[in-house]
């Protein structure tokens, strides 16, 4: 085996290890976000602490990369990206409060479907019939999970669908910005901007946290911020076609945490819909890898 091939294999291995850790940490952060919502904290306050304490892992990255990594020619794009991140995470945590954890995560995986649907009008990329068919099948799977019009339908799931749309917009903006912006700059500016977006809401939603809860908020920020860092490492070292299957392991973790903490058990329709959505997402990833590796979709935003 040549040195080049060995280095490539090592890079992919690092990517797989990083995404496995990142997805696991994100599952913990998502579970904590749901827990805080059920404990009575407003969504914007949860998001505030997520990004406030998320500055700690950001500072570690900047210490390693140097402040020169923050140099940017597109400050307005960073601001827009941060606002979208704030909107996406706020809607996501709001929906998770009243939707079972595994079901909420499965619905959130509709984001890559929105990415494909929007990549044509937004980025001018050509989307073929096979990928459009996968998008339609994926949305059909989401309907299977949500069952609108039935007694099983949860209106709060609409928050998560809106969140997935915002996450998709972040992915599209990330794809465009990554051509001339560093990962560190997008990571840092999105954390700072999203955190600042929460401040106007805190004047009317603030609840003084208990000491124990404050330490848990600290943990939420560190875990969420560290997860974002590992996702950056994952997509830097391995292609999305390799990472995507590991990204979807979030469904398994969310099922485990939901069962252990709230005794949630997804029913057969949720599993069927989730399988359809995941299959559609994996097919889209496969097709885009074959057509244009440089434009491979990100299964979930690596900068959440």
Short note summarizing the structure:
This protein has one domain. 78% of the residues lie in helices and 0% in strands. It has helices at residues 3-38, 43-53, 55-65, 75-98, 101-108, 111-123, 129-146, 157-177, 183-197, 199-205, 211-237, 240-247, 250-262, 268-291.
Task: Label this structure with key terms.
single chain; 0% strand; disordered C terminus
First CA to last CA: what distance? 37 Å
Number of domains: 1
- CA radius of gyration is 19 Å
Let me know the average pLDDT: 86
Main beta sheet: none
Low-confidence stretches: 295-303
Count of beta strands: 0
Structural class estimated from helices and strands: mainly alpha
Shape: globular
Alpha plus pi helix count = 14
Oligomer: single chain
Order of helices and strands: HHHHHHHHHHHHHH
DSSP strand content = under 5%
Helix content: over 70%
Question: What would your notes on this structure say?
Answer:
The chain has 304 residues and is mostly helical. It has one domain. Helix content is 78%, strand content 0%. The protein has 14 helices and no strands. It is globular. The relative contact order is 0.22. The C terminus is likely disordered.
């Amino acid at each position: 085996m040549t040195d080049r091939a060995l280095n490539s294999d090592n890079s992919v291995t690092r990517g797989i290890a990083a995404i496995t850790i990142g997805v696991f940490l994100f599952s913990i952060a998502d579970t904590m976000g749901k827990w805080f919502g059920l404990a009575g904290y407003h969504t914007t306050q949860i998001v505030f602490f997520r990004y406030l304490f998320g500055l700690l892992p950001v500072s570690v990255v900047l210490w390693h990369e140097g402040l020169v990594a923050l140099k940017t020619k597109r400050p307005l794009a960073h601001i827009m990206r941060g606002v979208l991140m704030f909107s996406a995470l706020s809607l996501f945590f709001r929906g998770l409060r009243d939707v079972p954890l595994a079901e909420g995560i499965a619905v959130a995986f509709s984001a890559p479907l929105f990415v494909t649907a929007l990549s044509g009008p937004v980025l001018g990329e050509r989307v073929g019939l096979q990928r459009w068919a996968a998008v339609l099948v994926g949305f059909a799977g989401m309907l299977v999970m949500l069952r609108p019009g039935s007694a099983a339908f949860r209106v709060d799931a609409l928050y998560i669908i809106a969140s997935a749309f915002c996450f998709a917009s972040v992915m599209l903006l990330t794809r465009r910005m990554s051509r001339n912006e560093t990962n560190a700059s997008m990571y840092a500016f999105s954390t700072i901007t999203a955190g600042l977006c929460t401040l106007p809401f805190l004047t009317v939603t603030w609840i003084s946290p208990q000491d124990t809860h404050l330490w848990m908020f600290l943990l939420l920020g560190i875990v969420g911020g560290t997860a974002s860092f590992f996702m950056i490492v994952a997509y830097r070292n391995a292609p999305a076609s390799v990472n995507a299957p590991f990204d979807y392991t979030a469904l398994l973790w969310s099922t485990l945490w939901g069962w252990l903490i709230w005794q949630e058990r997804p029913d057969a329709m949720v599993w069927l819909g989730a399988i359809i959505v995941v299959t559609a997402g994996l097919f889209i990833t496969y097709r885009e890898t074959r057509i244009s590796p440089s434009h491979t979709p990100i299964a979930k935003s690596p900068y959440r």
